[in-house]
Design goal:
The chain has about 525 residues and is an alpha/beta fold. It contains nine helices and 27 strands. Strand 6, helix 6 and strand 7 form a beta-alpha-beta unit.
Length: about 525
């Protein structure tokens, strides 16, 4: 007998590996023991790569990278789009990680780096790891898609950035990094971000290195994860921007990474904080690809290291990303069973007219979080619970055959669907009367803080098709169903006066704008 644990009445025997199974079976047959089992082996799960410069990459330990790699090192099916200056694909630590991208500066497939910045950010997020060469990346297995928007003079047009965002989203890329900043808000950028978000992508963007609270873009756009920088001591980096629009933080000082020409060097800036955060997101999605983008962002925020004031603060956001906490949280509740959806009305292949109720029920093994109604693939309305009854004005659709789909999601991001096909048959009306629109919330002249639900009342003699809501001339939201609302995160804008406007359209193309209002932050 090798040892005993008297408190729990356990004895440990040492036998040869070859005889262990026979001894276990023989002891169990005696009936003298409550259980007989091997002395199983556990380990910390930490993985240390064999790259010679790993020990000089303080930032990987700061985000608990080695512990996280014991759970997830990334997969090839979750690429990361790097919107930057390109990548040196001949670099020995990057050549195996690059997949085809696009150059929006030259309009070609040549994604070679003409500046050096993109090679450095790419190495930060995904240098080839555990290959006995150079440095390690946050992710080992996730490929990198270079999308070139920065020219050799270090300038990028907003239109090229927007084009790269939409390109990545159309390629099915769900993690996008943009280590570029501009000082001007833009409807073009916000529209591209909204498009990518609608396709399930999450955009990470650097906060900038000007030591200012002024919003920078695209980081300050709605639905972008804005990342500030920390230093080797876990303090806020003095060069980093800050403010109400910061979401997360990550190491950004003395980051050892790849450089053009096959070498390595130290870089600093939020340009490196952002891909570190993006890399953590890729590790999580590699484990749970069904996770929605909103759930992914929440998981990163809730499992970060709170280095500043308790809770969210304008320097660290919700905290510094922690890869181990994030992947552990992703593994803690693995639910792969989608909800079951049943549409009971209208009947399949039926004819509908006027306003009808789309009715049915949803069941799930855990719980339903979202029910959404689509007409021909376009989101029309949502329901809060099952059974559901969703109002649909068929006059908003052409007299033709239409597919009605109900999608139901659970907390794990699993989606169940049901659909029916119906024919719409409504009287044809010649419409020349524009809608009427009024901004009902917030009120003109009021002071706003936090997340504000902008609400617009719109009516039409036939039907309102959509309402677009703008803040300071920048498109924020387009809503096709009443009440027409838009969630505006005022933490993303600077203090002072802001103008809210709205425009309503009907199906005939008639339009009218609501009386603009001014609010203060």
């Amino acid at each position: 007998m090798e040892k005993t644990i008297p408190q729990i009445n356990v004895s440990v025997l040492q036998v040869s590996e070859a005889a262990s199974a026979h001894v276990e079976a023989a002891l169990a047959r005696t009936g003298l023991f409550n259980f007989v089992e091997p002395d199983f082996i556990a380990h910390s799960g930490s993985k240390t790569p064999n790259d010679p410069d790993f020990s000089s990459q303080w930032h990987l330990a700061a985000i608990s990278g080695p512990n996280a790699w014991g759970i997830s090192t990334g997969v090839s099916g979750v690429p990361i789009a790097m919107i930057d200056s390109g990548v040196d694909s001949t670099h020995s630590d990057l050549s195996s990680k690059i997949i085809p991208g696009w150059n929006f500066v030259t309009g070609t497939s040549n994604t070679a780096d003409g500046l050096g910045h993109g090679t450095a950010t790419a190495g930060t997020v995904g240098a080839a790891t555990n290959n006995g060469n150079g440095v390690s990346g946050v992710t080992w297995g996730n490929p990198i898609m270079p999308l070139v928007v920065l020219d050799s003079a270090d300038y990028a047009s907003y239109s090229n950035i927007a084009g790269a965002i939409t390109y990545a989203a159309d390629q099915g890329v769900r993690v996008i990094n943009i280590s570029i900043v501009g000082s001007s808000a833009s409807s073009t950028l916000q529209s591209a971000v909204n498009y990518a978000w609608s396709k399930g992508a999450v955009i990470f963007a650097s906060a900038g290195n000007n030591s200012t609270s002024s919003p920078m873009y695209p980081a300050a756009c709605t639905n972008v994860v804005s990342v500030s920088a920390t230093d080797v001591n876990g303090a806020f980096a003095s060069f980093s921007n800050f403010g109400s629009w910061i979401d997360l933080s990550a190491p950004g000082n003395n980051i050892l990474t790849t450089t053009m020409g096959g070498g390595y060097g130290y870089w600093y800036g939020t340009s490196f904080s952002s891909p570190i955060a993006a890399g953590v997101a890729a590790l999580v999605l590699s484990l749970k690809p069904a996770l929605s983008n909103s759930a992914l962002v929440s998981l990163l925020e809730q499992n970060s290291d709170d280095l500043g004031a308790p809770g969210w603060d304008p320097y660290f956001g919700y905290g510094q990303v922690d890869a181990y906490k994030a992947v552990t949280a992703a593994m803690s509740s693995v639910d792969t069973i989608p909800p079951s959806v049943l549409i009971t009305s209208p009947a399949n292949n039926g004819t509908v007219t006027g306003t009808i109720q789309v009715q049915g029920s949803v069941t799930d093994n855990v719980g339903v979080t979202k029910i959404q109604f689509y007409v021909d693939g376009q989101l029309v309305a949502s329901a809060a619970s099952s059974p559901f009854a969703i109002s649909w004005n068929t006059a908003n659709s052409a007299n033709a055959s239409h597919t009605l789909t109900v999608n139901a999601s659970d907390a794990a991001g699993n989606v169940g669907s049901a659909f029916v096909t119906v024919s719409v048959s409504n009287p044809i009306v010649v419409d020349t009367t524009p809608p009427a629109a009024t901004i009902t919330n917030p009120l003109n002249g009021t002071t706003v803080t936090g997340v504000v639900n902008i609400t617009v009342s719109a009516t039409d003699n036939v039907a309102v098709a959509q309402v677009s809501i703008y803040v300071d001339g920048v498109l924020k939201c387009t809503d096709a169903t009443a009440p027409y609302t838009c969630s505006w995160n005022t933490k993303k804008v600077s203090p002072g006066s802001h103008t809210i406007t709205a425009t309503a359209w009907d199906k005939a193309g008639n339009m009218a704008s609501a009386l603009a209002i001014t609010v203060r932050k």
